Amino acid sequence: MSAYVFLDRDGTLTEDRGYTFRVEDYRLLPGVAEGLRRLTALGFRLAIVTNQSGIARGRFGPQDFERFQKHLVDDLAARGVVIDASYHCPHHPDDGCGCRKPSPALLERARDELGADLARSWMIGDHAGDVALAARAGLAGAVLVLSGRGRDEAASVDPAVPRADNLSAAAEAIAAASR
Length: 179
Ligand SMILES: [Mg+2]
Ligand SMILES: [Zn+2]
What we know:
Strand order of the largest sheet: 3-2-1-4-5-6
CATH class of the domain at 9-95 and 107-112 and 165-179: Alpha Beta
Structural class: alpha/beta
Order of helices and strands: EHEHEHEHEHEH
CATH superfamily of the domain at 9-95 and 107-112 and 165-179: HAD superfamily/HAD-like
Bound molecules: magnesium ion, zinc ion
Number of strands: 6
Largest sheet: 6 strands, parallel
CATH topology of the domain at 9-95 and 107-112 and 165-179: Rossmann fold
Number of helices: 6
Radius of gyration: 15 Å
Strand content: 15-25%
């Protein structure tokens, strides 16, 4: 069993342009590669967990998502970061699916498929739903990044949850909590 840090994508790793899917729109956020390398050095493995309702909304297709995702994972690999897996919910919020964050279903898949030890794992995201997911899945904790929508979301997140300006600072918050 491995401890994981689960990563939201849009607004956490990459610039959130609203239903981002074009590779030309790909922008890695500042501090991301450094922060992910730091988490790996701390002994965590990494996986991405993302809601992609743009697929159900017809804004882009599953292949567009896969192409963007491959571009991200390949770019991170070139920067020395290994992403073990990407999990996504392609459904609309009104679909009543079981997998959309903050439903814990995608993390339960990670537990079963990757051997993720959820109780020793963390979530980093820019949305209150990412923080709620951590609680519902029984993770060790969550960090709210203030990139993306994080500053707007902060008011609706438990003040006890650590805030970080970017992924690099989020990694330091997890390092401090793991000490
Ligand atoms: Mg996000
Ligand atoms: Zn879903």
